[in-house]
Amino acid sequence: MEKWNGKVVVVTGASSGIGEETCRQLVKKGMIVVGFARREDKLQELEKSLKGKLGKFFYVKVDVCSEENILEAFNWVKRTLKSIDILINNAGVMKQSDLLGKTNDWKQMFDTNVIGLNICSREAIKIMEELKTKEGHIININSIGGHYPFPFMKDIAIYTATKHAVTEITESLRELLGMKNLPIRVTSISPGAVETEMIEEVNYLKEQNMLKSTDIVEAIMYALSVPQRVNVAEIIIRPTKENTLDFMKSTMQVHTYCFTYNDLAESVVSSHVRKERHRIYDYVNYKIPSI
Q: Would you tell me how many other CB atoms lie within 10 Å of the CB of residue 265?
């Protein structure tokens, strides 16, 4: 990590959770960190707590749903610090809203998790390219929900759709920067449930085994620490003992399903047997068409 000493890092969603912990650890490592977030009071508290550390912490009040806010913030970083070496896109919103839910919830999730993320990446890359950054890195805090469907969690379908978009954006950006021959690495870090404020939006997730923000920061540190020739493209992090049945149990309780694990297992087996029975019947009764 010594190579990043004195380098400039922008962290979005810096006022709490993974973003706050990331700022703390990077400042301790000697980096110049700029935190973007909406809650200025939280940013001020973070600034006070990081005084006297090896690195430095600055903040800019930013709503990543506002392109104007984002552009002003990156211009401030460019003017004041004359560099951007790392961008950590951590800002995210999760609303418990299904496909029949509120339009405003959908817009907020897409504006924050997808559009805002991509605007931040675009602006950071512009500055890196203009200032001829020798080693750049963009890290997107994604989600395990960006890789797998969760059929028993329909109330976060829009959220997981935004994270599937982040998976595609991350890989496409890595390819694009490679074709442009720019020395900028791109990483997606996809955690399962993390104990943060965002989880408060979805009650049944709080019952699961959860990761800590520090676990995700360790993954960020690893992705940053490897040699420039190595691009850690994806890290998926699950809590130990996490399993699908626990998720199914929690979601079923919330949505007041009335069947047990045994009922579910019997239903699945019965369905499989019926399909096999029909397949065998069709095979046995198959007639060779006359020519």
A: 12
Which helix (H) or strand (E) is 109 found in, with range? Answer: helix 103-110
Domain coverage including residue 230: 2-242
Half-sphere exposure of 37 (CA within 13 A, CB side): 28
What is the rounded distance in angstroms from the CA atom of residue 181 to the CA atom of residue 202? 42
Count: domains in the chain: 1
Within a domain: 284: no
Output the pTM of the full model: 0.82
Asked if the structure places residue 275 within a domain, the reply is no
The C-alpha atoms of residue 104 and residue 81 are separated, in whole angstroms, by 36
Enzyme catalytic residues = 159
pLDDT of residue 241: 74
The DSSP bridge partners found for residue 140 are 89, 188
User: What's 127-191 look like in SS3?
Assistant: HHHHCCCCCEEEEEECCHHHCCCCCCCHHHHHHHHHHHHHHHHHHHHHHHHHHCCCCEEEEEEEE
Tokens 């509120």, located at residue: 102
Residue 286 lies in a domain: no
- pLDDT for residue 259: 41
Q: What is the CATH number of the domain that holds 164?
A: 3.40.50.720
Longest dimension (CA), the chain: 89
Let me know if residue 280 belongs to a domain: no
Cβ atoms within 10 Å, residue 267: 11
Model confidence pLDDT, tens digit, residues 202-258: 555 556 678 999 999 999 999 999 999 999 999 999 998 776 656 555 555 544 443
**Can you tell me the distance from the alpha carbon of 178 to that of 221, in angstroms, rounded to the nearest whole number?**
22
Closest CA to 87 of 53, 124, 43: 124
Closest CA to 60 of 48, 49, 44: 44
